[in-house]
Amino acid sequence: MTPAVFEPATPLAPPSGRTTNDLIRQQNLASVLSLLHLRGALSRAQLGAAIGLNRSTVTGLVMELTELGLVREVAAGERTGRVGRPTLDIEPEDHVSALSVRAEPHAVTVALVGLGGVVHARLRHDTASAPSPRRFVQIVASSVEAMRADIDRHYRVVGAGLAVPGLVNANGSVLVSPTLGWKRDPVAARLSDELGLAVTAGNDASIGALAESRFGVGVGVSNLLYLGGAMHSIGGGLIIDGTLLRGTSGYAGELGHTVIDPRGRACVCGRRGCLEAEVRLDLLEPLLGRRKLDEDELDVELGVARDPRVLSEVTRQVEVLSLALTNFVNAFSPETVVLSGYLGALLSVSRERLAEAVRVHPLGAEGRAIRLERAHLRSRLMLIGPAELAFADLLANPAGFRG
Fold first, then answer.
1. How many CB atoms lie within 10 A of CB 24?
2. Rounded to an integer, what distance in angstroms lies between the CA atom of residue 296 and that of residue 195?
């Protein structure tokens, strides 16, 4: 998927006091930095070919980004000429970083992520129960303070991104997060005041879709359906024609609250038989005799499971998930369906059944080739994803960004 900053759909009028040349320069700087951020080290020739600019223009843009401390030259490994002088590629400065924060019912994770999706450090703080918004902010601040000496010595932090399992509006306020017990709380503003940084918040599943589309299995995919399964919840994210679908106030993608069985299990949203009430890890863990399994441990447990109770529950949940996937594919007609977290583990043991749901049952399936994939970023997904929110302003206007 080509980032929208590369080619604006319509010419933009220059703001007051700025010329058209200023605006073109800003767009070109954004194009170069965004391309390097997403693809890694590239030569000047590759940059020019991708963006449609001549070599001298690219050289000038690279020089400016280098002076801003946002990119650097590195040996490409290839040698040209008789003297064996290495060619130089350009790559993003990964010491330019963002804080990535994830809120979960029983954990708070804080990571430091550099341009290019490089994870420098992370801290996870387990909690006995879902923290209040105030307590959550305290935990994040404490985690950042634990990283403080290293951050101050090596990194330039440009902002923070926050992933929340719930409805989050454009201002970073949580309308409701059933699994956290938060309602109408300006958590992004709270965190911004505490850290002294700009904080951008979003729904965790939409953030997951964004990260997979930029750095994972969804690279180059224009229409993608993402479903992520956590311990107590399922969230969805949709990339439609290359753009993250946000809906009114940013609330699109609550696919976990699609009713699959009106007479089913009670859901935290107040209804019965929602997808996330029927397909959840905490229904399976007691049968496995394990608690707080991470994704890799779960893969192993499901791969060796022979207990009829475990196999029966896995089969039941896979059938429910299959029905939901058929409905979602009919509704959104994606090229690729990506499952992450707990749902990715179910895919690993039931690929044939789930693949049938997205390839056979949907209307018009005979004319489509729909890929069903597990998220490639795995444990890095919710580290890299929130950082993308924090990098957005920098990538849109490198020269004008002040952090």
1. 13
2. 33
3-state secondary structure of 280: coil
CA-based max dimension of the chain: 76
Strand, coil or helix: 299: helix
Q: What CA–CA distance (Å, rounded) separates 239 from 380?
A: 20
pLDDT of 214 reads 94
The pLDDT tens digits for 362-396 are 666 555 678 999 999 988 999 999 999 999 999 99
Q: How confident is the model at residue 78 (pLDDT cuts 50, 70, 90)?
A: low
Opening angle at CA 295, ends 292 and 296, nearest 5: 110
Retrieve residue 362's tokens.
């949907």
- Summarised one tens digit per residue, pLDDT across range 181-221 is 999 999 999 999 999 999 999 999 999 999 999 999 999 99
* Residues in a beta bridge with 312: none
How high is the pLDDT of residue 84?
Answer: 57
Pairing state between β 199-203 and 156-164: parallel
* E strand map for 302-354: 336-341
- Given a contact cutoff of 8 angstroms between Cβ atoms, the answer to whether 272 and 266 are in contact is yes
Looking only at the bridges linking them, the beta strands covering 234-240 and 182-185 are unpaired
pLDDT tens profile 3-43:
333 333 344 555 556 688 888 999 999 999 999 999 999 99
Q: Which two tokens stand for residue 319?
A: 């059938």
Coil, strand or helix: which one is 171? coil
The amino acid at 84? G
User: What pTM, to 2 d.p., does this model score?
Assistant: 0.86
How far is 252 from 237, CA to CA, in rounded Å?
A: 8
On the CB side of 264, CA atoms within 13 Å amount to 20
